[in-house]
Amino acid sequence: MSSITFVPLVGVISDLLAEQNVPYAGAIGSTITFVLVLGLVSLLGRATVQPIVRRGLRSRGVDKHASIPILKLTRGLIVFVAVAVAFQMAGFGNFLTSLATIAAAATLAIGFAMQDVIANFVAGVFIFTDKPFRIGDWIEWDDHSGVVEDISLRVTRIRTFDNELLTVPNSHLTDGVIKNPVAKDELRMKFTFGIGYDDDIDAATEIIIEEAEAHDEILEDPAPSVRLVELGDSSVGLQSRIWISNPSRSDFVKIRAEYVKTVKERFDEADINIPYPNRTIGGELELAGSGPLATEE
Q1: Separation in Å, CA 280 to CA 22, 277, 283
Q2: How far is CA 208 from the centre of its chain?
Q3: CA–CA distance, 18 with 36 (Å, rounded to integer)
Q4: Rounded distance between C-alpha atoms, residue 207 and residue 225, angstroms
Q5: What is the pLDDT of residues 59-79, one digit of tens each?
Q6: Cys-Cys crosslink for 25: which of 17, 87, 161, 177, Cβ 3.0 to 4.6 Å?
């Protein structure tokens, strides 16, 4: 009975190159085998494993916030497996053994070099588990604000309202205070109107409340309210507190602008002033060495 002999792919390629008198046929054959197997296994993994993972996440109702890093991790595992298989098929030895040897030798150097990377990775894990914000949220931190476009395990990408893209290390977003105005279904807005000391506070308060109640996108419950919050140098501060639903940055700016505009117009009709600070500069000016000015008669 005849037996079938298995010839490794790297041997076939090397033999073909040797028959063509190609120098270093063995090394070139190993390299070609590595590239071919790496590409084949990677394509196979992306065509089979990724769709399965994606369907599994969709069937379990996993939202975009959590599914994106899982898919990225899946792609990374596919590449790792492809490299390991290609390493073995090319005749370079056992990939895991080689990797362990290299890792043991480089652990100390990598540890120092990757302190920030590890810190950002851990921060990214906390962002995915604690969910202080999600993709599409409008957030504010330090002196920055914008809409979250992407969250990875190392950085978060945020589009500012000037259309600038900020790439922020995750550790910067977990070490400080993050304000997420759209985390809840309702958002309270505050705006302080300044009126003159001689103006009628009750009349101004009534106008502020009426214009809030008349606006279609300002909620009736919780009801709008007004508080006297400041007795300034030139004005009395009346703070309006109103609520909107399903908040976003565009809604926030639009509703506030419309509301303030209508209140200002009602103030003008009622002859209620919105004063601005006045400064009076006094004193004398002396010119050294100058005599009295002569006048003509």
Answers
A1: 93, 10, 10
A2: 36
A3: 19
A4: 11
A5: 877 666 667 777 777 888 888
A6: 17
Tell me the residue type at 216. Answer: D
CA distance 59 to 276: 60
Cα 168 to Cα 104, 124, 165: the distances in Å are 31, 11, 10
Q: CA distances (Å), 246 to each of 139, 160, 184, 188, 250, in order? A: 15, 20, 8, 11, 11
In Å, how far from its chain's centre is CA 96? 36
For residue 231, pLDDT over 80 is answered with: yes
pLDDT tens track for 10-20: 666 666 666 66
Q: Is 47 helix (H, G, I), strand (E, B) or coil?
A: helix
Q: Say if CB 14 and CB 25 are below 8 A apart.
A: yes
Q: Which two tokens stand for residue 284?
A: 């004398």
The SS3 call for residue 127 is helix
Q: Which residues in the chain belong to E strands, given as ranges?
A: 138-141, 144-151, 155-159, 165-169, 178-179, 186-195, 225-231, 236-245
Nearest to 90 by CA among 161, 151, 139, 41: 41
* Distance of alpha carbon 115 from the chain centroid: 22
**Coil, strand or helix at 287:** coil
User: Phi first, then psi: what are they for 150, rounded to 5°?
Assistant: -155, 145
Q: List C-alpha distances in Å: 87 to 37, 91, 240.
A: 9, 7, 68
